[in-house]
Amino acid sequence: MNTLRWTAALLAAAALPALAQVAVADAWVRGTVPGQLATGAFMTLTAKRGARLVEAASPVAGVVEIHEMAMDGNVMRMRALPALDLPAGRPVELKPGGYHVMLMDLRRALRDGEVVPLTLTVESAGRRETVEVKAVVRAPTAREGTMKKAAP
């Protein structure tokens, strides 16, 4: 009887639609200096099925949001997004000057070479899954640009 229940449970689980199954590539976080309260996390996300990035978290920051930088007339503006669409099979690049995960209220400086844990929450077909990411702290390349600390 237990074998029958076990088989039924496995078949029921197999019948559920697969979750987004999001792949993460090239995850990194821009390094900071003491006193800097914010930085960005960047990566490429590819969802096997259509999905949305709806939340992010990290123990190194008090506040973590999904952001977009875009031109508004002649001014580059940054704004928080409630979610970021991840079309099926199409890589979505989170990069400086575009979509990114904003880490704010940093608890400490992030040094080159250390690893920052991030938890991404992805929604697909009304179901949520979390994706654990280990992002390496590094300085951006010249092509990626730099983020200057505001003067006091």
Give an overview of the whole structure:
The protein is mainly β. The chain has a single domain (27-136), classed as Immunoglobulin-like (Sandwich). It is built from 1 helix and 10 strands, in the order αββββββββββ. Strands 1, 2, 3, 4, 5, 6, 7, 8, 9 and 10 form a 10-stranded mixed β-sheet that branches. The longest helix is centred in the N-terminal third of the chain and has 14 residues, at 2-15. The protein is globular. The model is unreliable at 4-18 and 146-152 (pLDDT under 50).
Provide a concise account of the structure shown:
The protein is mainly beta and 152 residues long.
Keywords:
single chain; 152 residues; mainly beta; Immunoglobulin-like; ten-stranded mixed sheet; 1 helix; 9% helix; 53% strand; disordered C terminus
The percentage helix is: under 10%
**Total E-strand runs:** 10
Oligomer: single chain
| Structural class assignment | mainly beta
CATH topology: Immunoglobulin-like
Order of helices and strands: HEEEEEEEEEE
**CATH class, anyone?**
Mainly Beta
Q: Estimate the mean pLDDT confidence.
A: 85
Radius of gyration: 18 Å
Distance between the termini: 71 Å
CATH architecture level-2 label: Sandwich
The number of helical elements comes to 1
Tally of domains: 1
pLDDT < 50 runs, ≥5 residues: 4-18, 146-152
Overall, the morphology is globular
Amount of beta strand? over 45%
